[in-house]
From TrEMBL:
Membrane topology summary: Multi-pass membrane protein
Major subcellular location class: membrane
Residue ranges annotated for the Amino acid transporter transmembrane domain, each copy included: 66-495
Protein name (record): Sodium-coupled neutral amino acid transporter 3
Nuclease listed as a keyword: no
GO biological process, one term: histidine transport
Record keyword Transmembrane present: yes
Molecular-function annotations in GO: L-asparagine transmembrane transporter activity; L-glutamine transmembrane transporter activity; L-histidine transmembrane transporter activity
Subcellular location: Membrane
Any single GO CC term annotated in Swiss-Prot or TrEMBL for this entry: plasma membrane
Keywords: Membrane, Transmembrane, Transmembrane helix
Coiled coil: none
Species of origin: Alligator sinensis (Chinese alligator)
Pfam families with a match to the protein in the record: Aa_trans (PF01490)
Amino acid sequence: MDSTEIPIQTEMVELVPNGKHSAAMNASAIPSDRFDENQPTVAEMEEFLPHGPDKKQTHFTDFEGKTSFGMSVFNLSNAIMGSGILGLAYAMANTGIILFLFLLTAVALLSSYSIHLLLKSSGIVGIRAYEQLGYRAFGTPGKLAAAMAITLQNIGAMSSYLYIVKSEVPLVIQTFLNLEEKTTDWYMNGNYLVILVSVTIILPLALMKQLGYLGYASGFSLSCMVFFLISVIYKRFQIPCPLPEKDINGTSNFSYTLVSTSDYQNGYTPLQHVNEGTCSPRFFTLNSQTAYTIPIMAFAFVCHPEVLPIYTELINPSKKKMQCISNISITVMYLMYFLAALFGYLTFYGHVESELLHTYNSVDPFDILILCVRVAVLTAVTLTVPIVLFPVRRAIQQMLFQGKDFSWIRHIVIAIVLLTSINLLVIFAPSILGIFGMIGATSAPCLIFIFPAIFYIRIMPKDKEPMKSTPKILAACFACLGVLFMIMSLSFIIIDWATGGGKSGGSH
Ligand SMILES: NC(=O)C[C@H](N)C(=O)O
């Protein structure tokens, strides 16, 4: 048993928003409304109570989960893995292999440390909900800040996934039907297709009562990403560098032309490599785009809103077990991220686009393997939407319906409203997705660095860990690092907007 969790049983605390612990009492004696805001209903509790007599391992009073260790690894890995992977090869092209590896390792380690802080804090509070940690640390403002950061980050992530669906599914259908030109049929219209995918696949999964039920979907989503990775590695040895020059437009010797998604709907336009010497890897490089590396990597490792909900549903939970689940997921994703970035980079070198899939599409959108890769990525991101939606629904419930019993109607209505809004955003205001670059630059550092650190500092009692103790000083440095990243990312995005670059806008 982890020492930090003993207090839950022995040092049960009032939910007072000042970090001071006013009561020391046994968990069994705690009235049921003590943790009112996150308390599941009796029926919900009973449904998930283990039927055996084994109660010894129960550390939390909020909920007893029944999701296995393996399924939790799948769910957390699926929460980590998303459109972030598509931006990493671009990041590597702008940092070089060694600097990229260093930064990726740093972000992965910091991400794991941040989960450690969240788990330790939740062990003290006795409730595994991000918003509750905020409430415990700073009262209602803390709870609202956490809930809003989760909502914005996850709505941003879901919009980017659905935007991939909107732009890629018509191309997949076009390639399947072997059509040279895009037709006006409804099944070639990304707007209808995104609604269809949302209603038939995402909504039913999002209506599941528990995240744990999504384990199989997550496993499948991850296997799609493994297929994507294998294809990226294979393509490295198949696509020549430099690419054969084909100047079908008769344009001059322009160093490189990547066709946009809409351009290649009009037929195959090859890449044009002219600059020689572009086919050797760089190990260390710095340029104006290097600045985006940290925000891209931070986004790629965000899974923090999902950690505590997954912990809540874990069978026989303990902090050690959940940290182990997180470390396994982060390590596997770290390896996949590195390999995808490395082989994506070694295929196109400096010509890799900020969205890896587009770069392949530009080579030959009718290539059968590329087609399968697109389907795999589409499936993976589609199956990630329900996982990412769960914490948003929980945050909304915490903000608007706190203390209310579980209600199927509310559960369904929130999912429908959320999905409808994201669909509308993706269909009618794709340019607004650029705003999410801004939001991502604010909410990701908050969720990974700032909140876990400051919540921890406030929640951990001073008599256990004085302000000058090493863990609290480390946490304070971690929060400062987050503020630094946030200022850095925001400045780059603003400079980018001001100079009309727009690389940071909504693609991931
Ligand atoms: N879950 C998220 O917020 C983003 C995810 N880490 C991604 O790469 O897409």
